[in-house]
Amino acid sequence: MSTVYFPEVPEPIRYEGPDSKNPLAFRHYNPDEVVEGQSMKDLFRFAVAYWHTFRGTGSDPFGPGTAQRPWEDGTDSVEMDLKRVDVAFEFMQKLGAPFYCFHDRDVSGAGANLKETNARFDQVAAKLKEKQGETGINLLWGTANLFSHPRYMHGAATSPQAGVFAHAAAQVKKAIEVTQELGGENYVFWGGREGYFNLYNTDMQRELDHLARFMHMAADYADEIGFKGQFLFEPKPKEPTKHQYDFDVAACMNFLRINGLQDRVKMNIEANHATLAGHSMMHELEYARIQNALGSVDANTGDALLGWDTDQFPTDYYLTTQCMLVILEYGGLAPGGLNFDAKVRRESFEPIDLFHAHIGGMDAFAKGAKVAAAIRKDGVLNDFVKERYASYDDGLGAKIEAGEATFADCEAWVTEHGEPTIASGRQELLENIVNRYI
Ligand code: XLS
Ligand code: NI
Ligand code: NI
């Protein structure tokens, strides 16, 4: 393994167990350890987000980047794109992440026109493919950046200008091709600027129709070239626009259903987006799970005191336990995975901070998985829930569920039985029980 860009991490990160005080070791993530029949490696399918980890500069609206990245030469060149691929793979190999994710423009910059841009992308993709072969690290998903370039200021597929739609389509066409070439297992649509600031200037119906057309065209193109990856739709309620069309899982599922896309597209659910929508991450995951639409996870967290997408690394055991309760119930995420769509703080500007951040996130999910598996093994929550709904298992309840009961039957039941017996919800007890496992 080459040590060129991260000399402060001479060895791959290893599992040393919960008592380790080594900041460059895993305390819970043990790739070969089995949880509910799957190795942790296969259960989590951890991915590194190319944009935050290798393109993030630490800039914020009040100041420029702070990140020290000694390998960056400051040029927007294919040489720098290619060198950065080496940096990325050294990092991911040392971390032991089996996957990565990218937007087209994270890995390769733009040229003077579409043709030049795509040629540069091809050059970088060839190098990515070579490094994937060398290291065994694979592409979890690819996507296209349809929000940074000024032409996308009004949106991409939902721009009022058809030429912008065309540009976006051409970009996604290429991004799907490269994702296929690299064996990517999924392709993500996140809204970017697909939304609006003011309805005075917006034809919402047309914009939504255009977004649906765009996704159908992508699916058709995937069929045409034989791309077998799973399509994913990533909900986010706001930011950059005031109202994003992919607001939350419920809004996305509704959009997919009315547009006949529900069999083609699953959800890529991000924790910070869930909280921005006023939901818990567990709610969003569960809502997708019960509809068999849980595709993949963007693992991060927001800050309870800040109302924007801070994209912090997840370290909270309650959050990861709640995620893993749902993910284990779903049987894992494959072909999706857990992508750290998260960035180090502006104040954490050294390369080594990238390791601390990912190690912490991976450990938090491993710990959450162990806790969730123990809770599930003892059946404490499941048994309670089952019992809570037992009145629907036979008699009138079973008839209601089977669609065999009428209002008149209900009236007759009340006449015969009078007041029903109500049981306590025991929320506090259940929270205490979960604390026992944490
Ligand atoms: C932004 C999104 C973005 C998507 C990929 O908030 O999370 O990073 O995951 O375009
Ligand atoms: Ni995301
Ligand atoms: Ni996000």
TrEMBL record:
Q: Where does Mg(2+) 1 bind?
A: E234, E270, D298, D341
Q: Active site at which residues?
A: H103, D106
Give the Xylose isomerase-like TIM barrel domain ranges. Answer: 122-284
Could you name the domain of life of the organism this protein comes from?
Answer: Bacteria
Read off the SUPFAM superfamilies from this record. Xylose isomerase-like
Looking at its record, which EC class is this enzyme? isomerase
How many and how are cofactors bound here?
A: Binds 2 magnesium ions per subunit.
Q: Where does Mg(2+) 2 bind?
A: E270, H273, D309, D311
Summarize subunit and interaction data from the UniProt record for this chain. Homotetramer.
Could you tell me what this protein is called?
Xylose isomerase
The taxonomy runs: Bacteria, Pseudomonadati, Planctomycetota, Planctomycetia, Planctomycetales
